[in-house]
């Protein structure tokens, strides 16, 4: 099961996805709300935290989750205080009951990752793309529009028509024809 623990939070935060199964994991930790109690309402233990990137709205709750569950984090930048273990581009990881491939997708932030499971048809896209063709900001430190365009193209190439659901960093998950939203985001990022 996949739960968005930040779905009804009114504070500034990223979406936080709890994925239960063989490897019970959190994808991003969010900020400005009590994520620990929300995790505990679903599971007794947590195996890992995977970070799409280390902007504050995605990681400020990491310390609380580490303390509560004795869990470590995986992300792209091992120099970050929030990342215990590096995940390389193309590396296989397990989230829940499914195998995922980590895709290094910079442009919004240099350490940005997407996690894609071909067998499940699911992608955790962080702030790369959003519903209705929106895409991650490139005006923050480390952002670059051309690089973001290349990253969206990379996701499109790897996922292709096997993509069924995209869980995004902000707003609703894309559950109907997600590749259409990726194409819209790509066009918008190229022309904005």
Strand content: 15-25%
Please tell me the overall pLDDT.
96
- Tell me the radius of gyration: 15 Å
In the CATH hierarchy, what is the architecture at level 2? 4-Layer Sandwich
Assign an overall shape.
globular
Describe the biggest sheet? 6 strands, mixed
**Terminal Cα separation, in Å?**
36 Å
How much helix, percentage-wise, in residues?
A: 10-25%
Poorly predicted ranges = none
How many discrete structural domains?
Answer: 1
Structural class: alpha/beta
Give, in spatial order, the strands making up the sheet with the most strands: 1-2-3-4-5-6
Tally of DSSP β-strands: 11
CATH superfamily: Ribonuclease Z/Hydroxyacylglutathione hydrolase-like
The helix-strand sequence is: EEEHEHHEEEEEEHEH
CATH fold-level topology: Metallo-beta-lactamase, Chain A
* Count of separate DSSP helical elements: 5
Highest CATH level, the class: Alpha Beta
GO molecular function: hydrolase activity; metal ion binding
Domain Metallo-beta-lactamase: 13-170
Cofactor: Zn(2+)
InterPro entries: MBL_Glyoxalase_II, Metallo-B-lactamas, RibonucZ/Hydroxyglut_hydro
């Amino acid at each position: 099961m996949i739960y968005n623990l930040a779905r009804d939070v009114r504070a500034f935060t990223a979406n936080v996805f709890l994925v239960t199964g063989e490897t019970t994991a959190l994808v991003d930790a969010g900020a400005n709300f009590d994520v620990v109690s929300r995790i505990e309402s679903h599971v007794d233990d947590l195996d890992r935290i995977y970070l799409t990137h280390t902007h504050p709205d995605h990681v400020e709750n990491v310390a609380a989750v580490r303390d509560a569950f004795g869990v470590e984090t995986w992300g792209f930048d091992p120099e970050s205080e929030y990342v215990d273990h590096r995940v390389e581009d193309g590396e296989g990881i397990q989230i829940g009951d499914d195998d995922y491939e980590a895709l290094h997708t910079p442009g919004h932030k240099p350490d940005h990752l997407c996690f894609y499971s071909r067998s499940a048809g699911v992608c955790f896209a962080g702030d790369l793309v959003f519903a209705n063709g929106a895409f991650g900001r490139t005006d923050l430190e480390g952002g670059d529009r051309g690089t973001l365009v290349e990253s969206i193209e990379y996701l499109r190439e790897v996922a292709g028509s096997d993509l069924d659901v995209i869980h995004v960093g902000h707003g609703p998950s894309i559950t109907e024809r997600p590749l259409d939203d990726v194409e819209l985001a790509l066009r918008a990022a190229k022309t904005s």
